[in-house]
Amino acid sequence: MTEDLQNLEDRRDRLYQKLPSFGDFRLGIISQTYTRCGKNNCACADKDPAGHGPRYLWNTTRQGRSLAQHLRLGPKLDQVYNRRSAQMAATQTFDTNVCVGPYR
């Protein structure tokens, strides 16, 4: 074993303390989209600019059905990004627990 039990338990305790700080989070992915309005005199009519946006589209699956919703900048968008951080911390906690297992 590369780390002793005390170091692993200390790391796991630090990770457990992080988890409540993530607050609300949503499962899913976010896509940034840009659209063109179709007006000839609009700046988005040129080929070079990306168009109007970005708009944020949140996609998830609930009870076997796909769900998509446009999100504005703010708390709902932050909830999806919080999920990524929470998932990373949970994965690190799981990996640490796997390392602690042989010691017990």
Explain this structure.
- With 104 residues, the chain is an alpha+beta fold.
- It has a three-stranded antiparallel β-sheet with strand order 1-2-3, with helices on one face.
- The chain has one domain.
- It is built from two helices and three strands; from the N terminus they run H-E-E-E-H.
- The two termini are 13 Å apart.
Number of domains: 1
* Number of E strands: 3
Give the C-alpha Rg.
Answer: 21 Å
* Mean pLDDT across every amino acid position: 76
Side-by-side strand order of the widest sheet: 1-2-3
Q: Please mark out the parts with pLDDT under 50 across 5 or more consecutive residues, or reply none.
A: none
Separation, N- and C-terminal Cα atoms: 13 Å
Main β-sheet description = 3 strands, antiparallel
Brief summary of the model shown:
This protein has 104 residues and is of the alpha+beta class.
Please describe the topology of this protein.
Elements: H1 5-18, E1 29-35, E2 52-62, E3 65-71, H2 75-100
Antiparallel strand pairs: 1-2, 2-3
Helix pairs in contact: 1-2
Q: Keywords for this structure?
A:
104 residues; alpha+beta; 2 helices; 24% strand; elongated
